[in-house]
């Protein structure tokens, strides 16, 4: 009876992850690891798209090995209310942008921001930064891209970490 319950639970968990992948067909694995919403497990980004976009307002910047990538830039950014966020930047992410573009208090000069929420559950994942009209005359370079995302580390998980949480009973291991 106990093994039957484990099997049913495992089947349910596996089917839930398959449903989430089917809901986000653009979630192909281009990089080392998919980044997931910590609240619901939806795919929100691919580690292939992580890049270094320095903020002049960063309180601290360090390199870490995260999400199957080496030397990922992690910046500690502080908002006007004194709340600290450890943030990684990504060229592409699946976000539902909330609210109008805000130019004030941007951590990245020349970029306005909007809140980036999980498209599945609405969890705050970070911010989408878009180059402002004033800076559009500047040359386009890898350091001055049009749009990017700042993802809050504590609100995302790597899929390899979540895979390590699922333990199969010995009788089902191959």
Automatic annotation (TrEMBL):
Signal sequence annotation: 1-16
MF terms (GO), sorted A to Z: metal ion binding
InterPro entries, alphabetized: CULT (IPR034750), Yippee/Mis18/Cereblon (IPR004910)
Keywords: Metal-binding, Signal, Zinc
Ranges of residues in domain CULT: 32-160
Pfam families found in the cross-reference section: Yippee-Mis18
UniProt name for this protein: CULT domain-containing protein
Taxonomic placement: Eukaryota, Metazoa, Ecdysozoa, Arthropoda, Hexapoda
């Amino acid at each position: 009876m106990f093994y039957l319950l484990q099997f049913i639970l495992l089947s349910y968990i596996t089917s839930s992850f398959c449903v989430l992948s089917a809901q986000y067909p653009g979630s192909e694995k281009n990089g080392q690891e998919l980044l997931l919403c910590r609240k619901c497990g939806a795919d929100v980004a691919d580690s292939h798209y992580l890049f270094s976009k320095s903020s002049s307002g960063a309180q601290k910047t360090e390199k870490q090995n995260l999400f199957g990538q080496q030397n990922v830039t992690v910046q500690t950014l502080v908002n006007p209310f004194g709340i600290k966020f450890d943030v990684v930047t990504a060229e592409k992410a699946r976000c539902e942008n909330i609210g109008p573009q805000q130019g004030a208090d941007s951590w990245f000069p020349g970029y306005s921001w909007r809140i980036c929420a999980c498209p599945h559950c609405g969890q705050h994942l970070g911010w989408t930064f878009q180059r402002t009209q004033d800076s559009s005359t500047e040359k386009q370079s890898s350091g001055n891209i049009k749009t990017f995302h700042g993802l809050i580390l504590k609100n995302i998980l790597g899929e390899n970490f979540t895979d390590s949480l699922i333990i199969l009973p010995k009788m089902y291991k191959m």
